[in-house]
């Protein structure tokens, strides 16, 4: 895909399309079945290494990663699972309603996860708040496709089922994209900054925005795990802005007569 946004923005890092698909390229990167891998790594492989990366129900072991990609949500498949994840997403053991069961899960987890289970991820201040988020605020998708592909935008074809485009951005690039998004949207809030794991901001929340009557961009990499990945594969000050496809198309149509043509933008780019 030849993108007007990319041609004008000239980003440091390659944008990545999120594609729903029933086929996967033979040379695509996938996690080995049965081995844990973070969805953020799939995205970074596409952006930093220029290769298609694929996730499926069988290859993504992390329940959060499967929920983020749209392969169903099982955080609340039972009361025990709900209690486990509500505690994990909040204060850990002190937030668990069934502390004995939670301690057993913690003991059986890999040793490098024990600290996370003990203290929680602190995305919510209480288990009750985490339960509310799981039950009522988490976007829920069980897509009718076998794969979600992270595909360099430059490699996408016209018939690809692109659901969103992820831009890994520097602060200046983020300012340009947010201004462009706001220029084609009514109101004063063109960006959602969702609460949840960083993989959710790349995909699930963007799916939900794409289905909304007035889709917004989704800011990502605001979590500690996301920041660690950005430090290793991008830059310490890099963020992500995911554009659901309806918004991306509106911004594409406007990019040729936008902030990007102003002398102030060229000055920021150093031209």
TrEMBL record:
Organism: Pseudodesulfovibrio portus
InterPro entries: DUF169
Stated name of the protein: DUF169 domain-containing protein
Organism classification: Bacteria, Pseudomonadati, Thermodesulfobacteriota, Desulfovibrionia, Desulfovibrionales
Superkingdom, natural source: Bacteria
